[in-house]
Amino acid sequence: MRSLVFNLLFWPVLVVFALIAWPVAFTPWSRGLKAIMRTACRTVRALMKWVLGAPVEVRGPVPTGRPVIIAAKHQSWADGFLMMAVMGDINFVIGNEISKFPLIGRIVRASGATMVNSPGLTGAQGALADAIKRAADDPRPLLIYPEGRLPEVGESYRYRKGVHLMYETLGRHVVPVATNTGLRWPQNRWRKHPGPAVIEFLGDIPPGLPRDDFLPRLKMTIETRTRALEAEGQADKEARS
Question: What sections of the protein cross the membrane (predicted)?
Answer without folding.
Answer: 6-29
